[in-house]
Amino acid sequence: MTRQKAILISGCDTHHALFGETHTFRYLDGFLLSHRYIFAESTARRLFDKDGEAEQAGVPLSRIIGIFRQQYGTEPWFICEQCADYLGLDPVDKKAAHDATLARLASPNVVGHLPAIDERASPAHNVLAIGYSSRLIPTKDEMASLTVFYDQIWLPHPCDLSPRGTKNLASVFRQIAGANYEIPNLQAARDRYAAACGVWQPLFDAGILKIMPPFEILAGLLGDNDTISLTDYADWHMRLPKEASRFERGVSQLESLILALHRLDAKKTHPELFISNPNDKSTARLSGFLNQAIVAARIPMLATLDANQILDLRESVNQAKDGYRQYLYQLTDDLEQRLSSGDKTEVEAARKTAERKIIPEYANYVRQLKALEIGFGARILEAGGKFLQIDAAPWTPKFWGAILECFSAAIATTAEHDKEIYLSNEKQAFHYLATIERNVAGP
Fold this sequence. Notes:
Blueprint: E1 9-11, H1 15-19, E2 24-26, E3 31-33, H2 35-38, H3 41-48, H4 53-56, H5 61-72, E4 77-79, H6 81-86, H7 91-106, E5 129-132, H8 140-149, E6 152-155, H9 168-177, H10 186-199, H11 201-205, E7 209-211, H12 230-245, H13 253-265, E8 272-273, H14 283-298, H15 307-340, H16 346-372, H17 375-383, H18 397-410, H19 416-422, H20 425-441
Parallel strand pairs: 5-6, 5-8, 6-7
Antiparallel strand pairs: 1-2, 3-4
Helix pairs in contact: 3-5, 8-14, 8-15, 12-13, 14-15, 14-16, 15-16, 15-20, 17-18
């Protein structure tokens, strides 16, 4: 009997959305992509609304993405070569996606390849970025609250702790101890840094964590003729140990030196969080202090999330995030007033504003919704001519998610007062916080 070779056939998950037809092909010729790439705004717009007809008709892209996300969940998407070319995958990404296809045969837990997402392709994209220089990598207590709130976190350049980093430590040690002096414990520090980056690698892959560009020591002291005065040179060497002493708790000696070099010489492209600077009153920075204070007081469980859980949570709160940010922006004036009135640090001022203004109002919001029961939701559903079995209390994020699904049909006839209240920055901010609490606490 002649042996026949089995051929695995599969269907392209994106073909119907792009071309309105079913397409089957050999599984081994396909490409496996992460759902996070498919549901990114730039990708989703090309797949689900390439002509812009839905958005022109008033249907937000976020709602379209939400429908597909509800249907497909977090499963990877399997696509054909025609769709891969349409999406513009380069040869490197195509190879990685094809490797993921093969790996999926051995393990169903393979999540698919995540290409770099071109955030610039989304015309409405407004990146909220911050610099972080308290450590080379944020602590686990800080990571989730930072990466859920901000679009990008710019981290200090690691210098000698990365094989591709600028050798600034080597330069400092040569100046102090001579050309043949070896940097103590360098390999251990490199291993520690690599391990810390590995824990949060999905956040680097998603473009949320970013490394600042390399810098040269003493570059900030160069005069017009590219020379450094002897006085400035001596002052720099006196300031270095003082700056390093700021960071000696919780970091290695080499890391503290790199952070000191960053403080002295790196070009700062974004406002820096957690380094007290009363002169920097940028909104992006002060709102970050408020966010940290709220999370610490109300949602400390956020610190338990790993990198993939953080990415999932970012997707869950995306719809209400802008309202939350705008609400905090409005309250940064209160921080400025507190700093002008005697509060010594931004952390202290933010804690007082969170404890005295934000958290009490949020608690009041929850109580009001409990008292209202289903009154608001019932009016919306009645106006839309629909009836839903919502198996959640009306003050939970699940309830509001169901309500928002009905908004397209009901928004023209629902009481304007109710809509304006719910869609205010304050209520969107509280919805954002409630969504995080529910996701972190679990069902």
